[in-house]
Amino acid sequence: MACEIIKPDRILKELGELWIDTAKSDPGKPGTESGDDGLLRACSMTLISFVDDEEDSMALGETLALLMREHPSRSIVVRLREGEDFLESRVLAQCWKPFGHRKQICCEQVELTATMNHLQDVASVVGPLAVPDLPRLILLRSARIVRAGALRKILPLADKIIVDSSRPGAPGFGELGAMLDSGHIAGDLAWTRITELRALIAHLLGETVPKVITIEYSGREAGPETRYLEAWLDGGLPDTHVRIKSGGGEGLGTPLVIRIDDTIVIRPGVGCAEIEMGALKQRASLAVGRDDELLSAELKIVVHDPVFERALNRITA
Fold this sequence. Notes:
Blueprint: H1 8-25, E1 39-41, E2 46-52, H2 57-70, E3 74-81, E4 87-96, E5 104-115, H3 119-129, E6 136-141, H4 143-147, H5 151-154, E7 160-163, H6 173-181, E8 185-188, H7 189-192, H8 195-205, E9 212-217, H9 224-236, E10 241-246, E11 255-260, E12 264-268, E13 272-277, E14 280-285, H10 291-299, H11 306-316
Parallel strand pairs: 1-5, 2-3, 2-6, 3-5, 6-7, 7-8, 9-10
Antiparallel strand pairs: 4-5, 9-11, 11-12, 12-13, 13-14
Helix pairs in contact: 1-3, 2-10, 6-11, 9-11
């Protein structure tokens, strides 16, 4: 069966009709101008998510819905599937009512489902759907795009691309480095995941320059978070010997223990870190690092992040 012909103008028309229908279903309180009731259309950016069709749509939907609270956007979700000659679209609204308010806040969402042979068609549709004069960001969670070497087809669609190198099938350090070399702005949730841990280490060190810092990680191979932490410390403390080693057992290569000159020991955990300084033991709070929290932090940065880029360049050098 021939795939559906989709044009940006048609989708924009459907979005306009969606707002008319949504307003009719919740007209607000009669006799008010904008009213305390009714709905408010909100948009601060265009967020384009590329995902594989088999990914849990409910989990992704919950993440995007939570993001909308702080970053209202025109959300475009592109689901890529196996097979040939399939392309379809639909439009919907994401609405919520802030606590203590009667007015609903609503954002637009466009969903495109396509086979990989229509990726170029998808790009030609998505481009014109971006809201003018607002930031455009890509969340890349599609292993199919990476395997097909098709990153170049989607990079021009956004001002920044966000990946999570700890996910299976995600772009590697080399591909991220190539994005930076070509002038693109990139973000990695694996880097964002260690933000509070880096802040804790910096606070504990103060003006001290240790001789040796050892990072023990779980599993047999160092994961992206461990590699980023090593690169950040190595670049910020050129007179310190920074080394990583496996702590053994099973795991995803995340930092287990950070030893600073054997005088400070940090054990990161879920929601907190245990700290030992001689006989003194204490705990420090760390963010759990939910996907929506990490993405929210990255969506606030639509410029080059020099600290992240220096760490990535040290890894790829």
